[in-house]
Amino acid sequence: MTKRERVDGIYEAIRKVNQVYGRWASAHGLTLYEMQIYYRIMERSLQKEQAYITQKELCDELDAPKTSINSIIKRQLKTGYIEMEVNPANRREKIISLTEEGKRYAKELILPLFRYEEEAAAEFTEREMTEVIQMQEKFADALAKSMEKEKNE
């Protein structure tokens, strides 16, 4: 297998995963980014007991421009499922959270997805999952290092 074929294989695998999430979002009348807002808020509420996310955190976590995230948030505000407030801890930030109706909607949208992800992950041994994660991180680090080296030459 050539280096190009290996790189293409990595991107093909990533693309397939993204397609699966995209189909789930589309089946629920959402774009991938719209769905990911609900995903991130649900993830936080279950793991950190923090049922909100800042607009900046969304941009960082979704690797999306602020203008794109802002447009998506504005569309979702109209649904009545999310609300946006000024962060009392940092008045320059906006906090995005779910309304009561939004919590019900997000549970129906995201909790089955979490279950499917966990079922898929259960098909791998602990070691295999660790290796997948480590290899993906190693590739990302090596790619960044190569780009940085090129930039400094």
Would you summarize the structure shown here?
By secondary structure, the protein is mainly alpha-helical. The chain is 73% helix and 12% strand.
Structure write-up:
By secondary structure, this protein is mainly alpha-helical. The chain has one domain (32-148): Winged helix-like DNA-binding domain superfamily/Winged helix DNA-binding domain (Arc Repressor Mutant, subunit A, Orthogonal Bundle), CATH 1.10.10. It has 6 helices and 3 strands, in the order H-H-E-H-H-E-E-H-H. A 3-stranded antiparallel β-sheet has the order 1-3-2. A hairpin with a 2-residue loop joins strand 2 (82-87) and strand 3. It starts with a helix and ends with a helix.
Q: What is the number of beta strands?
A: 3
CATH architecture: Orthogonal Bundle
User: Mind describing the biggest β-sheet?
Assistant: 3 strands, antiparallel
Q: Can you give the mean pLDDT? A: 92
Distance between the termini: 29 Å
Radius of gyration, in Å, reads 18 Å
Described by its quaternary structure, the protein is single chain
In DSSP terms (H or I, runs of 4 or more residues), the helix count works out at 6
Low-confidence stretches: none
> How would you spell out the order of helices and strands?
HHEHHEEHH
Lateral arrangement of strands in the main beta sheet: 1-3-2
Strand content: 5-15%
What structural class do the secondary elements suggest?
mainly alpha
| CATH class descriptor name | Mainly Alpha
Shape: globular
Look at the structure and name the CATH superfamily.
Winged helix-like DNA-binding domain superfamily/Winged helix DNA-binding domain
- Give helix % range: over 70%
* Overall number of domains: 1
CATH topology: Arc Repressor Mutant, subunit A
